[in-house]
Amino acid sequence: MVQKAKILLVDDRPENLLALEAILSALDQTLVRASSGEEALKALLTDDFAVILLDVQMPGMDGFETAAHIKRRERTRDIPIIFLTAINHGPHHTFRGYAAGAVDYISKPFDPWVLRAKVSVFVELYMKNCQLREQASLLRLQLEGSEKDAGESKESAGLLAELSARLAAVEEQAEALTKQLNDESTDAAAVATAAHLERKLTGLRRALDALDPGTGSASSVPSQN
């Protein structure tokens, strides 16, 4: 069973949270509510999120301050943030949102279909990154096993072939996603995230190729950042 991605919804007004849940329910992911910046930061301490929808105007800690805290934490700094605001103070206000680390800044009332489409892109990128981490973890386990028992070369070759096939499937999906993003001229942040994912996949592919008995050994595997 594929694990669902978590989407954090941050707004001090219950009716706005309810509206966001209605819009995003079609994505069939896990929607987590937070009614304040402080509550959002607590949720981020324990859970991983694909994207954060963050209201700008909130009493106490507003959206900009909340985003600043999120970007300062190593665990959460790379989570995409979409700012939502009911008022538009012009380009300066929008620039402040992007300067705070947002990947998008949307004024209310917004088009539900557009918001859902934007969120779905970041959910898909998050799922691809999760697949990549799982493949990298599996590779490390197999490398450790190979080092302990180098004599089982035939079994190792079979494991490498299986890993290579699994990685090829992820590579194909990532390539299709990148092409879709480029063709549709989606947000630059989403395109950049997809490119980063492809670079990670390239590094993992090189690691697998280095394990081929005909081209190298486990000791030549490049480190993964």
UniProtKB/TrEMBL annotation:
Q: Which residues form a coiled coil?
A: 160-187
Q: What is this protein called?
A: Histidine kinase
What GO terms are given for molecular function?
kinase activity
**Database matches in Pfam families:** Response_reg
Name the PANTHER family for this protein.
Answer: RESPONSE REGULATORY DOMAIN-CONTAINING PROTEIN (PTHR44591:SF3), STRESS RESPONSE REGULATOR PROTEIN 1 (PTHR44591)
Q: Give the sites modified to 4-aspartylphosphate.
A: D55
Lineage runs:
Bacteria, Bacillati, Actinomycetota, Actinomycetes, Kitasatosporales
Identify the residues that the record assigns to the Response regulatory domain, covering every copy.
Answer: 6-123
Q: Keywords for this entry?
A: Coiled coil, Kinase, Phosphoprotein, Transferase
- What InterPro entries does the entry give? Bact_response_regulator, CheY-like_superfamily, Sig_transdc_resp-reg_receiver
